[in-house]
Amino acid sequence: MQKQQLLYKGKAKSVYETEDNDLLILHFRDDTSALDGKRIEQLARKGVVNNRFNAFIMQKLSDAGIETHFEKQLSDDEVLVKRLDMIPVECVVRNFAAGSLVRRLGLEEGQALTPPTYELFYKDDALGDPMVNESLSVSLGWATKEQLAKMEELTYQVNDVLKALFDAGDLILVDFKLEFGVFHDRIVLGDEFSPDGCRIWDKNTKKKLDKDRFRQSLGDVIEAYEEVADRIGVPLK
């Protein structure tokens, strides 16, 4: 599969067309961003680590019967994926209180949320990815009610699979975001799953092992990503 014209350059990945209109190539770069892209730095090995991490997670989800856009890993930092018509709504599950939820509601960080909460956010960096609801998403034509219901169903399925996976590595899956798109009239999981888009803590010490290490200037960002990968069995070499 040959990489052709650059289709889109995001904050951490570049998307290229291929000779097959149904397939794209994602290139995971070493760029790391925060503050809706206002702060960007290069972290060595990040592209390779996230690509391998994502491929491992996508395969685990596929094995559990969840359709994803992942086709195959092409190289250390590139992957072949289905071409989706992306829905501009992020699905967020929170198993524990952290981040914006703590700031919004004055909760204690780490407070367990039983059952987990589910939220929708409009994907727009310029607006700060504002929180939205199903009614707005339907009225503004971002997705149908049926599509949103399927996205919620799949998001909770992903949560069940990954909570167990991380728990086996003595890790807590605090929260995460997912993006979905349409492929031949089916709702399919897209984008990526890596420590860039979730919060993961050590079960015993509550040490943060995700992108919050970059957001909060805690250091050792990629080392934390590699520790998580090692604990859940991601082959990084």
UniProtKB/TrEMBL annotation:
SUPFAM superfamilies from the UniProt entry: SAICAR synthase-like
UniProt xrefs under InterPro entries: SAICAR_synt/ADE2_N (IPR028923), SAICAR_synt_PurC (IPR033934), SAICAR_synth (IPR001636), SAICAR_synthetase (IPR050089), SAICAR_synthetase_CS (IPR018236)
Catalysed conversion reaction: 5-amino-1-(5-phospho-D-ribosyl)imidazole-4-carboxylate + L-aspartate + ATP = (2S)-2-[5-amino-1-(5-phospho-beta-D-ribosyl)imidazole-4-carboxamido]succinate + ADP + phosphate + 2 H(+)
Any one GO BP annotation for this protein: 'de novo' IMP biosynthetic process
Enzyme class: ligase
Annotated family: Belongs to the SAICAR synthetase family.
Record's protein name: Phosphoribosylaminoimidazole-succinocarboxamide synthase
Source organism of this protein record: Psychrobacter piscatorii
